[in-house]
Write a structure and sequence with these properties.
- The longest helix has 28 residues.
- The two termini are about 30 Å apart.
- The model has no long low-confidence stretch (mean pLDDT about 75).
- The protein contains 6 helices and no strands.
- It is mainly α.
């Protein structure tokens, strides 16, 4: 009889299989290392910046301003690079997604960070892919290989 995996562990195929040749050339790994460093420093620092800004700015005003400034910067970049403005239908869909994302994610995060440490808030937010996949599974919209791979990455990233 095969031993049982630890609680919460879902066995999945190794997603990095076939990439072992990358380890032999350290110079080829530099962009990957710089990419990971950028993600850790930039993304991680947003939680610290949020904790500091919440000392003087109300949470929903802070996140609303952040969302509006980010959206305007992306719109300006798209306009300068000759991007398509999109149809009214795409703007409506994007607006609904933006409001849900603002209220359900960023706004709640900012509100919660007034009461919990920023590290705990970051850790809890890192479980979001798990909840998205779980919701898709409950609705019968789950792509099983994708879901298993994402659950693997969720488990590894939170641990």
């Amino acid at each position: 009889m095969e031993p049982m995996p630890p609680f919460g562990f879902i066995p999945v195929p190794n997603p990095l299989e076939g990439y072992k040749s990358m380890a032999s050339n350290s110079r080829a790994n530099m962009p990957i290392l710089f990419g990971f460093a950028a993600v850790y420093l930039i993304w991680g620092s947003t939680y610290l910046a949020l904790a500091l800004a919440l000392q003087t700015i109300p949470p929903f005003a802070l996140m609303g301003a952040r969302s509006i400034v980010g959206g305007l910067l992306l719109l300006a970049y798209s306009s300068m690079s000759g991007g398509d403005r999109g149809s009214a239908k795409s703007w409506l869909r994007a607006s609904v997604c933006g409001v849900l994302f603002f209220v359900g994610c960023h706004g709640v995060l900012a509100y919660a960070e007034q009461r919990v440490p920023s590290g705990l808030a970051a850790l809890l937010l890192a479980t979001m892919p798990f909840w998205i996949i779980s919701g898709r599974s409950l609705l019968g919209r789950s792509d099983q290989p994708f879901a298993r791979t994402m659950l693997f990455f969720c488990q590894v990233s939170v641990e």
